[in-house]
Design goal:
Blueprint lengths: L1 E8 L7 H9 L5 E5 L2 E6 L3 H9 L7 E7 L11 H8 L4
Antiparallel strand pairs: 1-3, 1-4, 2-3
């Protein structure tokens, strides 16, 4: 599995964080919102495959970027830092 960052700019309040979390849960148990509208996803497929999966829940006017991440550093995030650190194999 690889670590990905999924960031969206929505044109309205849909999908909600809960809806996005549920949508991502269909492809992996390991995911979490790290900042508003920014998700970490531990995904077994490709960056374009994850993009295509996320795009299903978005409207045509929403913006989306999916990035494969090799490493990360953070200070304060919405997700429990220990969960994210474990994914990268290091202490928070």
């Amino acid at each position: 599995m690889a670590n990905f960052i999924v960031a969206t700019k929505l044109t309205d309040s849909s999908p909600s964080s809960e809806q996005m979390g549920n949508h991502l849960a269909m492809v992996t148990k390991k995911r979490g919102e790290v900042l508003p509208h920014v998700w970490w996803v531990d995904y077994h497929g490709t960056v374009s495959g994850l993009r295509d999966w996320v795009q299903v829940i978005l409207k045509a006017t929403d913006m989306l970027i999916v990035i494969e991440a090799k490493n990360a550093a953070w200070t304060d995030i919405l997700l429990d830092g220990d969960i994210l650190a474990h994914s990268w194999g290091k202490a928070a």
